[in-house]
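Quick one: structure for this chain?
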Amino acid sequence: MEATLSTLEKTAFLKTTQTFASIPTEMLAQLADRTREMHFDPGQTIFREGDANTGAYMVVEGLIEIHKGRTLEGVRGQGLGFGEISLAEGEPHTFTAVAIQPTHVLNVSNETLFDTMLDFPEIGVGMVRAMGKRVSELAQRISDLEGQIAHLAATLRQVGVDVPSYVSGAYPRPGART
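Got it. Here's what it folds into:
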């Protein structure tokens, strides 16, 4: 499918996302100009676990499911990113991404993304801030879940159910590599 967004439209879209909202528009336009548009039909695989890394993606419209093996890891919708910027170009993806609705994404290779960060450090700073915020949010969610587990275990013990002790991080996920 042909590109449908101008650089100005890509920039305006990126500016609405949490990841890029704080980045000055002029610098964001440089990144937008380096992205490519991709369109996927429902059920179409964007990449599979084990495929060579293809960079970072941002959902313009639609919905993506993220799978690790047979486990649904998450769903990404408009304004949310996916991909693995920790991987070098060509390293294997550690999860599978599948469109579950007609989906429109922007894609940029990791190499291009990192080159853009070097050219415009404000982009890297903005991304680090957004990722730091996300890590803090996830840490809070983990803490909340651990509190719920502790409460549930205490309640079960009160009614006489033998509950195994819980230690944070002590339970590897099925199929997880150790």
